[in-house]
Amino acid sequence: MSTHEETPEEHLPSEQREHGAEAVKRPENPFADPGLPPHEHRVQDIDEAAAKRSERAVAFLFALSMVATVGFIAAYVSVPQDKSIYVWPLGHISAMNFSLGMTLGIALFCIGAGAVHWARTLMSDVEIPDDRHEIGASPEVTAKVKADWVQGAKESGLGRRKLIRNTMLGALTLVPLSGVVLLRDLGPLPGTSLRHTAWKKGKLLVNMNTNEPLRPSDVVVGSLTFAKPEGLEEHDHDFQKEIAKAALMIVRLQPENIKDKRELDWSHEGIVAYSKICTHVGCPISLYEQQTHHALCPCHQSTFDLADGARVIFGPAGHALPQLRIGVNDEGYLEALGDFAEPVGPAFWERG
């Protein structure tokens, strides 16, 4: 017994009724071409006075963009960074941010609005249908594209309407200056600032914990003391920046255990002062092993021999720790005899 009912032959499609017969042919394009709607001329196409008004409107937008760009630069230079203004409904906001945002926004908007108004009122709006072809263009297509481009450039009126052309070029020339001016935010050139710290001759070594100047008797053999320059206080606005370069660790060794001659000459009664900043990635060194005289950075385990010029004996650090030359003043306090002889922390492009 059949598992399904057979469909009468007369109800089958013709393709199935005529087994082996050629399939019914259908038209290649079943959708009729609706064509283009009748072209309607704009008022600018038939009235030169209206075209001139549109030209002046476009030129005004481009000129306004130039003025806004100049305003952006002026605001960046003249508006104080710490000044705030009240703007409803935003409340109190930075005057510089508001002025920069408004002027740059107006400059960019006017260029876009001018280009759109130019295209909608003065450029040709005749729709030209074109068939799709393969991506690889034939020489004929290439020539046609070039001809279309030339025709479009001619119809845009760029050469004939010099007012629009000149103001557009002016606006496009000035707008990039906004980005050039913003490069000033990268800050002043570093110059030699990376080579210098807050240490200089006569600066007392101040204990970071007690905030008191250090005497030689305050540093005992085997101890690790952290110090900062005299006059550098935590409430100073640049404290973090300065302490990141000037942080000091002080240890006392037996003079006979110091292997490096310069280290011995720059020490005082076996007291040596080295930068606390690791020369790998700038982590603060905080571990000291008094038997081996090794200082260890806890971040990546770079190890420095403080009895041998703080040279690297293990880990990824690439340079020895900079040493600070120290002495004692007339009042018996430890003082710096100058700044570090080399840059502090990780190497940089001017190190040498």
UniProtKB/TrEMBL annotation:
Entry-linked PROSITE patterns: RIESKE
Membrane topology qualifier: Multi-pass membrane protein
Compartmental location: Cell membrane
Predominant location category: membrane
Record keywords: 2Fe-2S, Cell membrane, Disulfide bond, Electron transport, Iron, Iron-sulfur, Membrane, Metal-binding, Oxidoreductase, Respiratory chain, Transmembrane, Transmembrane helix, Transport
Keyword Thylakoid: no
Region (Disordered): 1-39
Transmembrane segments: 57-78, 98-119
Record flagged with keyword Ligase: no
SUPFAM superfamilies xrefs: ISP domain
Xref: Pfam families: QcrA_N, Rieske
Biased composition (Basic and acidic residues): 1-28
Function comment: Iron-sulfur subunit of the cytochrome bc1 complex, an essential component of the respiratory electron transport chain required for ATP synthesis. The bc1 complex catalyzes the oxidation of menaquinol and the reduction of cytochrome c in the respiratory chain. The bc1 complex operates through a Q-cycle mechanism that couples electron transfer to generation of the proton gradient that drives ATP synthesis.
Family affiliation: Belongs to the Rieske iron-sulfur protein family.
PANTHER family reported in the protein's UniProt record: CYTOCHROME B-C1 COMPLEX SUBUNIT RIESKE, MITOCHONDRIAL (PTHR10134)
Protein name: Cytochrome bc1 complex Rieske iron-sulfur subunit
